[in-house]
């Protein structure tokens, strides 16, 4: 009986050690996977933190002490290549330099078009009516709480009036370049099929909510 109890406790201790070892390995794998996802898939606007942490030059330091100095909007700053939101979000301009340099590659002459499916983001468009109302409310709040210590551009800021959810000029240019790249690559099939040859068909598709 004593031998049986001793063997039972030894077996239980061995099971607890194995459980702790397995739990430690699981936590280690989870930490490594989390780090890998964080490094390879940065979904946030990383350019904001990098821009803020960059060393200040003499000119930028002097401008920061100017009370009337207006900081550059985020759209004017460089987009990092790894930022998915900057590349796919329709509320920010698509980097035109990247769009112009895009090369889809030639289609082999032995291939025949079977299915064409285009995955693309909308063209840059103006804010919606709800977002426009938020801007108007912000302007009202700034007027109520205005202070003489504020920069002049902030005291005089007015909510801009835009046609809600319509394509901007750059948005139309983005879709035009998209059409040009696709037509260039699939010209051999597009000329052999009956389709609507009107460029507004490209523009209208991006102005409609999905």
Automatic annotation (TrEMBL):
- Keyword Transmembrane among UniProt keywords: yes
The source's superkingdom equals: Eukaryota
For this UniProt record, give its keywords in alphabetical order, as a comma-separated list: Membrane, Transmembrane, Transmembrane helix
Region Disordered: list its residue ranges.
Answer: 57-77
Membrane-spanning segments: 21-38
KW Transmembrane helix (keyword) present: yes
Name the InterPro entries for this protein.
His_PPase_superfam
Protein name stated in the entry:
Uncharacterized protein
The organism encoding this protein is Syncephalis pseudoplumigaleata
